[in-house]
């Protein structure tokens, strides 16, 4: 990372642009995926604001089926089909790639991982902050008569599964395209174990939450112990930083190898 | 004489070390990596900070009548120091940046206001007087400054935990003070915040929690908040070390490590 200091400022005057200066393609994955998820989730929240109060208060009403159960079905089918299609493509196209990777291509792929991680972070934000607040506002105001409330339908059954889609998908990209960092032979990386664990435990906690609310606490006190296990998943999401830093170490290693090659070349 | 020579030798050695550092062939990465990292990290940091606060101290932060002198100064500093501590560790160990807590507080501030404006005011129509979020930005700046000056996580946890709690209370008291004024409501002496909590219906918040500040700390009369702040400082030190555990074992330790034989 470029760190502001006198020493680095002096170093900056040397070799300014190296192989690690990726161009063009890296931005595309990062910006498009982050924007795509933002548009999707903001769109869903606008839909929630428009139809939650008019059609989402009574789960037995016909309009609830039209506006909310149909959305639930679309989300579940869409996310499931889209997820498995993307994962399958990642694995199949990854297997077809050559085993050796040139430095500049490896740097580009690491940037794609960073782009996918950025999109994962956007999904995490909508899951853990934006939609959680909507759910809190709804629950502390409206009577709960189903586990499939309007805020739950957009949060638990669209944003949460997409968290699993992104964490597993990012790992599949890494393991099929970055053999120096995430080789299958080296074992399963702890960083992705924690990150994928974060997205999976939150989905499991949905079941615990609904079970608890059905059995003993229909009211909503947000800081109640029933909700505390949800916190585990955002803590496990610290694995994101491990992925960033271990890929960054590889970028620095590439930079060093190239610098070494340059210094050795004239002597040869 | 000998001592002076030793001092000069040490100073000369130090100068040579610094010169070696300055002349080292540093690797330079383009600033684009910084942009992608800091922008992406803002989202996951906001998510972690906001959810941790919401699920450990959410009700105290959601409603003005929950911002009492008994629980709020104890629960909220504990809940809000966890993620700033984790990011402070990552930023300091990974990048030598004493900005982790402040960056987290700013992300948390933005996430909280987006949520209050869009989900609480626009979606459920609660007034901002009832739902304004507390800020931890001043507390975070101070805690980062303590780390910068002491360069010790142990000292930062002890001094920082205390300062975090008191800075949290002082910086938010300005916003809270008007709601603590007394008012007569249906023959009872209540605070303005209590009246707001009673007047705006929260049909799924338990009825028995309408008057939040009702515990035995009332026996301390006007000193209630100081007792709560002292205990809150102790709890915040514990929260700081939960954050350190997250930063150390879930973010830094896993780097380059794998599970064999899965």
Number of strands of chain A: 1
- Over the alpha carbons, how many angstroms does the gyration radius of chain A reach? 23 Å
**Separation of the first and last Cα atoms of chain A:** 32 Å
Query: What's the helical proportion of residues of chain B?
Result: 55-70%
The greatest interface between two protein chains, and residues involved on each side, is: A-B, 88 and 75 residues
Please tell me how large the radius of gyration of chain B is. 23 Å
Main beta-sheet strand count, sense and barrel state of chain A:
none
Number of domains of chain A: 1
Structural class of chain B: mainly alpha
- End-to-end gap of chain B: 65 Å
Largest sheet of chain B: 2 strands, antiparallel
Structural class of chain A: mainly alpha
Uncertain ranges of chain B = none
Quick overview of this protein structure:
Chain A is mainly alpha-helical and 268 residues long. Chain A has helices at residues 6-12, 25-55, 62-95, 103-139, 150-177, 190-215, 230-236, 239-267; one strand at 188-189.
Tags for this entry?
heterodimer, A: 268 residues, Glutathione S-transferase Yfyf (Class Pi), Chain A, domain 2, 1% strand, B: 262 residues, mainly alpha, two-stranded antiparallel sheet
Can you describe this structure?
- The complex is a heterodimer of chains A (268) and B (262).
- The longest helix of chain A is centred in the middle third of the chain and has 37 residues, at 103-139.
- Residues 1-16 of chain A have low confidence and may be disordered.
- Chain A has a single domain (2-259), classed as Particulate methane monooxygenase subunit c2. Chain: C (Glutathione S-transferase Yfyf (Class Pi), Chain A, domain 2), CATH 1.20.1050.
- Chain A has 8 helices and 1 strand, in the order H-H-H-H-H-E-H-H-H.
- By secondary structure, chain A is an all-alpha fold.
- Chain A has helices at 6-12, 25-55, 62-95, 103-139, 150-177, 190-215, 230-236, 239-267; one strand at 188-189.
- Chain B is mostly helical.
- Chain B has a two-stranded antiparallel ribbon.
- Chain B has 9 helices and 3 strands; from the N terminus they run H-H-H-H-H-H-H-E-E-H-H-E.
- The longest helix of chain B has 32 residues, at 31-62.
- Chain B is elongated, with a radius of gyration of 23 Å.
């Amino acid at each position: 990372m470029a760190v502001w200091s006198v020493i680095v400022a002096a170093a900056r005057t040397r070799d300014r642009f190296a192989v690690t200066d990726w161009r063009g393609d890296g931005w595309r994955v990062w910006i498009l995926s982050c924007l795509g998820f933002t548009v999707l989730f903001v769109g869903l929240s606008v839909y929630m604001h428009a139809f939650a109060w008019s059609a989402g208060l009574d789960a037995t009403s016909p309009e609830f089926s039209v506006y909310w159960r149909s959305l639930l079905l679309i989300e579940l089918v869409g996310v499931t089909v889209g997820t498995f299609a993307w994962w399958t493509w990642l694995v199949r196209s990854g297997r077809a790639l050559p085993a050796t990777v040139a430095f500049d291509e490896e740097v580009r792929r690491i940037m794609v991982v960073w782009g996918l991680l950025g999109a994962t972070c956007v999904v995490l934000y909508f899951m853990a902050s934006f939609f959680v607040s909507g759910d809190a506002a709804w629950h502390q105001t409206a009577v709960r008569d189903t586990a499939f409330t309007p805020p739950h339908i957009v949060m638990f059954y669209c944003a949460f599964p997409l968290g699993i889609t992104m964490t597993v998908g990012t790992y599949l990209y890494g393991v099929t395209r970055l053999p120096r960092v995430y080789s299958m032979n080296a074992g399963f990386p702890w960083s992705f174990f924690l990150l994928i664990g974060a997205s999976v435990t939150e989905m499991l906690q949905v079941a615990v939450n609904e079970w608890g609310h059905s059995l003993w606490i229909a009211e909503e006190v947000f800081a109640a112990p029933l909700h505390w296990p949800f916190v585990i998943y955002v803590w496990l999401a610290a694995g994101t930083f491990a992925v960033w830093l271990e890929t960054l170490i590889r970028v620095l290693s590439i930079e060093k190898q190239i610098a070494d090659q340059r210094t050795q070349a004239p002597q040869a | 004489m000998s001592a002076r020579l030793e001092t000069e030798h040490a100073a000369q050695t130090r100068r040579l070390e610094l010169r070696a550092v300055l002349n080292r062939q540093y690797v330079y990465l383009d600033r684009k990596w910084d942009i992608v990292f800091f922008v992406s990290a803002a989202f996951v940091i906001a998510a972690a900070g906001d959810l941790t606060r919401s699920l450990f101290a959410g009700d105290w932060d959601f409603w003005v009548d929950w911002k009492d002198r008994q629980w709020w100064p104890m629960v909220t500093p504990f809940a809000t120091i966890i993620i700033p501590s984790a990011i402070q560790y990552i930023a300091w160990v990974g990048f030598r940046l004493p900005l982790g807590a402040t960056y987290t507080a700013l992300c948390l501030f933005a996430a909280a206001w987006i949520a209050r404006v869009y989900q609480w005011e626009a979606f459920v129509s609660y007034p901002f007087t009832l739902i304004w979020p507390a800020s931890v930005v001043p507390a975070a700046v101070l805690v980062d400054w303590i780390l910068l000056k002491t360069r010790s996580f142990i000292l930062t946890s002890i001094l920082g935990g205390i300062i975090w709690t008191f800075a949290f209370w002082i910086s938010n008291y300005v916003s809270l003070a008007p709601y603590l004024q007394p008012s007569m409501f249906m023959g009872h002496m209540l605070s303005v915040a209590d009246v707001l909590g009673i007047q705006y219906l929260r049909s799924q918040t338990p009825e028995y929690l309408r008057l939040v500040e009702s515990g035995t700390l009332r026996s301390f009369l006007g000193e209630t908040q100081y007792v709560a702040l002292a205990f809150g400082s102790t709890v915040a030190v514990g929260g700081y070390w939960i954050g350190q555990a997250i930063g150390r074992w879930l973010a830094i330790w896993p780097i380059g490590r794998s599970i064999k034989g899965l």
